[in-house]
Amino acid sequence: MTGSPRLFDSVRPRLHAIAYRMLGSVEEAEDVVQDAWLRWHEADTQALDNPEAWLVTVTTRLAIDRLRSLKAERARYVGVWLPEPVLTAPQATPEEAHERADDVSVAFLYLLERLSPEARAAFLMREVFDAEYAEVARTLGKTETACRQLVSRAKRQLRQGPRRLAVPRATHHRLMRDFADAMRRGDLHGLQALLADDAELIGDGGGKVPSFASLAGGRRLAHLFYAGKRRYGDALRVEVAQVNGQWALLRFIEGALESVQSYETDGSRIVRVLVQRNPDKLARVAAAFDSAPS
């Protein structure tokens, strides 16, 4: 008996969540889930003790294989590779909002890029999806001891990156509103006051549009954002929106989405900006934002 479409559809959101966190790309995640569906359609589900666990295992293994191929492609990527941002709806409760912001933010997915495919899968299953080590071991086809080592090494690698600070969502939202307002007004001093002295910007243009791969210094960043207002005047529009579960800024020029900007803060000032300018990675956000009720 082939797999039930109804059961698969009920599990699809979880499968997509796994694939997106593994790959940092909506299109790649959708392809992996589609491949999982094809295998599910051909499977003898009556022989499966736990169909959902089977689907999670298949999806995770497909994502590992796909990420191995993507690692080589991303090594040849022009400039810095940043994850594809996703416009997200406000969560129903503060707990849901905190969970989404912690495990799917652009900054977090970018940090995960330093892990090997298997380490990324093990870390996500254990630390994000709360899987027992026995389940991680079955999914990866390894011993529990090996999986514990994978997760432990992944944690060490991630600690070597920028420190992730826990900032209340209301505080982050306020900083985003204030920074967006300063951008709209072309307030150079206001922009600089909201940026840490050692703030950094990382940009992804994908070789398709100009973008700073890296720029450091709050004063330099303030002048960069100020120059945008000076150059485009009223043709520049800035919106505050939820992207990957966190408040972010969407910058439009003459009505077209020019960038999605994800911000990290220390609770008082902005310490890091991840700017996605690659048009291919902006397409879904632009379409979703355009279709959202005004």
Low-confidence segments: 92-101
CATH class of the largest domain: Mainly Alpha
In N-to-C order, the SSE pattern is HHHHHHHHHHEEHEEEEH
What is the gyration radius calculated from CA atoms? 20 Å
**How does CATH name the architecture of the largest domain?**
Up-down Bundle
Q: Portion of residues in helices?
A: 55-70%
Number of helices, counting only DSSP H or I runs of 4 residues or more: 12
Taken as a percent bin, the fraction of beta residues is: 15-25%
Structurally, the number of domains stands at: 2
Task: Tell me the structural class.
Answer: alpha+beta
Supply the CATH superfamily name of the largest domain: PhyR, sigma-like (SL) domain
Helices and strands in order:
Elements: H1 5-23, H2 26-42, H3 51-75, H4 94-104, H5 106-112, H6 117-128, H7 133-140, H8 144-159, H9 169-185, H10 188-193, E1 195-204, E2 214-216, H11 218-232, E3 236-243, E4 246-253, E5 256-265, E6 270-276, H12 279-291
Parallel strand pairs: 1-6
Antiparallel strand pairs: 1-2, 3-4, 4-5, 5-6
